[in-house]
Amino acid sequence: MVTGGAELAATILDGLNRRDLPSVAASYADGARVHPDGWHEDVDVATWLDAFRMILTSFPDLALTAEHVAVGSDAVILEARLTGTNSGPFHLGDLD
DSSP secondary-structure letter at 11? Predict the structure, then answer.
């Protein structure tokens, strides 16, 4: 079990980079919410990971790197750089 916020962010990024989405899901507390930049509302972890799977179809070589991590008493905010090559279908949402 990861206890520190910065360690938690690193664990989640590692799981995303390894495409180990079950371990990523297990890193979140029950009832956790994710609020990706540009999304109108926060979503549950399962919805976020479904969206991430779609991103991976567009960018199969996607790599995530932590830029900034802010840790509070009950939340972690992670700013990450995503780098990849669009070599699959490009899924656009309502925002795009």
Answer: H
Instruction: Map tokens 């390894």 to a residue.
Output: 18
Q: Which long-range contacts (CB under 8 A, 24 or more apart) does 42-51 make?
A: 49/21, 49/24, 49/25
Helix, strand, coil percentages for the chain (3-state, nearest 5): 35, 20, 40
Say what the pTM is.
Answer: 0.83
φ, ψ of residue 78 in degrees (nearest 5)? -120, 125
Do 59 and 88 contact (CB within 8 A), yes or no?
yes
Task: Select the more confidently predicted residue: 3 or 86.
Answer: 86
